[in-house]
Structures are given as structure tokens and as C-alpha cells.
Amino acid sequence: MSWRIGIDIGGTFTDVVAFNEEIGSRKALKVRSTPKNPSESFLNGIRSLKDMGIESSDISMVMHGTTVATNAILESKYSEMGLIVTGGYREMLECARQTVPGDFGDIVTWIKPPRVVPLELVREIPGRLDYKGDELRPLDEEAVRKVAREFKEIGVPAIAVSLINSYRNPIHEEKVREIIKDEYPSCYVSISTDVIREYREYERTVSTCLNTGLMPSLSSYVEKLTEQLENTQNQTRFYIMQSSGGLTDSETIKKQPISAVLSGPAAGVVSAAALAKTSDFHNLITLDMGGTSTDICLIENGEPKMLTEGQIDVYNIKTPMVDMTTVGAGGGSIAWLTAGNSLKVGPESAGSDPGPACYGYGGEHPTITDAHLILGRIPTSLADGNVVLKAEASRKVIEEKIASPLNLTVEEAADGIIQIGTENIARGINLVSISRGQDPRMYALYPFGGAGGLHACRSADILKIKRVIVPLLPGLTSAEGLLLTDIRADEVITDVQREDELDITKLQSEFKIVREKSINYLKNEGFNEKNLKILCFMDFRYWGQAFEIRVPVDLPAGGQVSEKIIRDTINKFHHFHLDRYGYSYETKELVEIVNIGATGVGLLNPLQQTEYDSNSRDLNDALVSENKMYVTKNGKSGYYSVPVYDRYKIPVNKPFEGPAIIKQFDSTFVMEPEWTAQVDHLGYIICEKKGGI
């Protein structure tokens, strides 16, 4: 047997999906997450597979999505580090950018992000490159040795190196690293040209510092998992999800942990994109709602939107990532009252420890999950019976902390909690759609995560979205997405050239460099010309603009670049700019090339997609019970008798109407009034608002 395993660690549960590459069968399970020691829940998931008949020796490949890097940044739990910069740039992190979030008037109250590295741990060294990468002043190697010894004496465990203009020529940074490793072998060292070889010194330096600070914890975490996997009887390949939506090997993550800051959420987007590419639903809005937060992404024509930089907490970082918005609304989001008795939900979460009050682990605050339980919207047990819920605990905390102070019934308070949480999600959907010129009504909503199905129809109602598509394993979609993901390597070089001053020879050389780096990485991972592909791109802007648009470059099989190809790509940029912003400056402004890059993709064997059959022919076969659920129908709110269906017994192509509850071991889907649904031939629930699409 040959099993491919996907493991996604969330705030509350760790999801495991196993796929047999020989016979095409799937197995899935959930174990409770262990936030204080994430590797424990990972290994518990591997051990639990044995109870399902999967021996460790049968596992050929493990793909992992992790939030270890994300949480370390959000909680400021990255390692202490030193920073080495070019002389005269000691206050670079203090200067930062002049950009102010929100309206410019906020400059009065806005405080710049705290320094990643305190000023007393920043050291300047002599030596300078110009903007072309040519040496103006040689590197003072003795000064570097002195700094390395000083950091060693202080006991700083990690050192970041970010020198001015190094993106044009890494020679000085590479020499600094060599000297540090010679003087201080046990130190973790990260140079900016390894993290991101692009300009914009502040973002490159912040990214390098965060990468450096994450190296000790991520290295320890990955080494622990690798050691356990190596104890199996066969050679298990171990890959970790990157923010870009591709997998990479564990050694790369140890050197570049910053590439995994959106590791977990990206996998779910890959799963949704797979549906969008192979079905009639090409445009989707993903809604990944777990125990702590909700991640939302726009998929257009089968492809998720991508970013070359983004924001994690208060820090702007440069690394390829799926374009998504995170909202502080999850099953564990805490409901609370302001000093003026206004009801708020989130962003603080009860997580898995202690979790919602109904978990019985000591939670003392009302959460979204508690509200759903009181209103009869979820079963009295979760995770296939592993977590038994206590409704009386939920009722007590909502009564004491929300209902009584607001002079509401418990049901009214619980419904208000759910509605506010849903409004928060709807605002997040607006951020990835309306605020970027896209009409959400032209998309289908794709909910997953343990709680996504509980809020999908309500969110769709708010935004007038007419279709909701629920995957077969919504509570394990991110874990399943890991199994659908290919290996990926991204390479970028900054070379600013204006279209009237093109140096084609130089561009040809740079494309050759980024292509060869991507190809060599994939070949080292066992791929060959038949199962890898290289996607090239360029970042453009109009002369005088501050930020760029990425445009794919169509190269022939051999990868040769010609002036015609560059000119054709510039013409495509005009259309991309028009599509994104509603105007272009074609014939009016010169175009500037900023970055040249390549993405190498190692193609894994695709999962077999089999026809779904519940073996049921009548909807009554799927009816488990009738449940009293708090519903608003025809303007009246109250408890109504609602059918509860077993997801896996609902017959294919048999329409049914809401309100209804569809339960399965990994999640629950609540279909609101005025919605109809049917299960398609692949097992997806296709839900549509009455009145048509």
C-alpha cells in the first residue's frame, strides 16, 4: 500500500486525510489540537491512522500545513536576534514607511509597528554596493568578525543580514554569512538575498528579520517531525505548505520559515481552485472558518489571486502568498459587551484550550459555538463523538454575560451573537471582492473549515450571493487540499528597466538564472522534464508609480527570451492595468520593468476523482431525526422542527429544501429558509437561493 497523508493543524482540531495512491480510497479523522506543543497533535494524527489500518511503513508522503510561524509572529514569540546593516542604515526599521493605515488624518494617533529587532542589537558594517550592484567600498571583513564575536558573547541565537542594494549582487551578504558561521557556528543566520531578492529595503529587512526570528522554533519543530517520520520502515517524503499555495521540502522551510506564514489557509484555497478548474464553477469565494478565525479568498477563472507581499499582524512582508483576508470570527470567537453595552464578537478566541464553555474544559466566556448549540444548529457532539458538548454550560454563560445585561432572552442573545459574527464575515468577503472591483454576486460561496457551513447561507443572504457549494469533507478541506498541491519553487530578481532603455541581453541572462534555479531545485526533489513546468513572469508599473502588477510571460519550450516577447508582455500589462483599475496609460506613459521571476512546479500524481454514490435512492433514507432549531421564517423567530440529514446518505440529484441541518463527522451545514439543494455526481452539495441564479 502507498498512502499520501495531509495534516492540517488548526486552532481547535488537527485534520488528517489519507489517500491511497494505488486504489484511490480516502480515509479521514480529527484529533484535538495541542497549541502549546503542535508537534504532539501532528504525531497523534499519524498514530491514529494505525487504528484505521494504515501502518507507518505504508505512508509514502506526508504534506503538512502549519500555523507555527503565523502564531509566533502574532504572539511576538519569535527568537531574539541581532541585525547587521550597511553603515548609515542603523535606524532603517525606525524610519519604515510614511504610509498610514486608514485616512491620512490617522497620522495623529497612528503608531508605527514596533521594531522587530531592538536598536541596541543592530550593528553597522563598512562596505557598500551601488544601485547596479557594483562595489563602491569593499566589505570590512574584520569589522564583520568583530560583530559576530560580539553577538556570540551576548548570546544572541540568530542574526539577520540586510545590506543596501544587495538584491542586485549578493556577494557582500554571502561573505558576511560565511564569516559569521566561521566565528559563531551554532548561530542561525539569514541573509536578505536568500529570503527575497527584491528591492524596497524596509520590507526586505523586516521579512529577513522575521525569517531569522522564526528559524530556531521552526527548525526545532520540523526536526522533531522529521525524526519521527524517519523512524518508519520506509523513506517517507515530508513536505510543508507555503503561503504561495505550493509545497516545499522541510530543509527549505528551516531556512525560509517566512514562506510558511499562511501555510494552513493556503491549502484550502488549493482545494477550491481544483474544483474551479474542473467544473462549471470557475469563480468562487472561499470561506474557511475554523475555531479562531475565518480566511477568505477570491478565485477567478480557476486561479486564486496572488500577492508578492502582504501584511502579517502589523508587519509588511515580502514573500509570495495567496491573496486572502483574515477575519477574527471563528467557532471559538468570544462574545462580549463594551462599556456601553454594545454586543461584540471576536477577535479574541477561546481556542481549543479551554475552548467554548460547552466543551467542558473550563471555558468561562460565551462563544459562537455556544450560540449555535443553544439554538439547535449543531449536534451535541463533534469530531465523530470525540467532543461531547454541554448545552447547559453554554446557556449559563450566555445568560450571565450577554442576555441578562441586555435584557434579552438567551435565544435572542445567541441569535445576535451568530448574526454579528456573520456580519464580520460578510465584511471580509467585501474586502476581497467589492473593494477590489469584483461583484460577489457573480461568484459562488465555497464554505469549509469546521464552522464554515454554519454561516455560509447567512453570509450569502447578506451579500445577495445566490449559490453555495459545500465540499465533501468541509471540515477537512485544508488537509485534503494538501494532497492536491504540487511542489513549488519561486525565484525573483529585481532589475528596474524602462521600456525605452531595454537591455535584452541582461533580461535574457536573468530569465536564464531564475529558470535554472527553479529547475535545479525540482530536479533535486526527483522531478524530470516530463513532470515539471516553469511559469515565468514580470512585474511592471507605469513610470512614476510606486507598485507593480505581475504579468505572465509566454516563453517557448526552451525558455528563450526575445525583444518581441518582452514587448508583447508589456502590451498585456496595459490590459491587466485596465482590468484591475478601470484605466490604462497605453501610449501616454512609459512602462517600467521591476522584477523578473520564475515559478517552478513539480507535478505530483493527481488524485483520482471518482463518481460519488451515497447508495441511497430516497431522501428519507438520509433522515436522522427532527431537531428543534431557532429559525426566522416569514419574519417570525422561534423554534421550528427541522430535518437533520446524514450527509453521506443523501441521494444524488434529489432536490431538498431548507431549513435543514446536514451533519457529518467533520462539520455541520445549516441550510437556511428559502434555499434549496442537491448533491451532485462528485458529492458536492450545490445550494441555491430560491428565485434562481
Question: Could you characterize the architecture of this molecule?
Answer:
It is a single chain. The protein has 693 residues and is of the alpha+beta class. Among the domains are: 3-73 and 220-260, Nucleotidyltransferase, domain 5 (2-Layer Sandwich), CATH 3.30.420; 77-218, Dna Topoisomerase Vi A Subunit, Chain: A, domain 2, CATH 3.40.1360; 333-420, no CATH class; 487-602, no CATH class. Helix content is 31%, strand content 29%. The protein has 16 helices and 35 strands. The chain has a 6-stranded mixed β-sheet with strand order 3-2-1-4-11-12. Strands 13, 14, 15, 18 and 23 form a 5-stranded mixed β-sheet that branches. The protein has a 4-stranded parallel β-sheet with strand order 6-5-9-10, with helices on both faces. Helix 2 (68-74) crosses helix 7. It is globular.
Write the layout of secondary structure elements.
Elements: E1 3-9, E2 13-20, E3 26-32, H1 38-50, E4 59-65, H2 68-74, E5 82-86, H3 92-95, E6 122-125, E7 128-129, E8 135-137, H4 141-154, E9 158-162, H5 171-183, E10 188-191, H6 192-195, H7 201-230, E11 237-241, E12 247-249, H8 250-255, H9 263-278, E13 284-289, E14 294-300, E15 303-304, E16 306-312, E17 315-322, E18 324-327, E19 333-337, E20 343-349, H10 368-374, E21 381-382, E22 387-388, H11 391-406, H12 410-432, E23 444-448, H13 452-463, E24 467-470, H14 477-483, E25 487-498, H15 504-524, E26 532-542, E27 549-553, H16 563-581, E28 591-602, E29 623-633, E30 636-646, E31 656-657, E32 660-664, E33 667-671, E34 675-679, E35 685-689
Domain Acetophenone carboxylase-like C-terminal: 504-681
Domain Hydantoinase/oxoprolinase N-terminal: 4-183
Pfam families: Hydant_A_C, Hydant_A_N, Hydantoinase_A
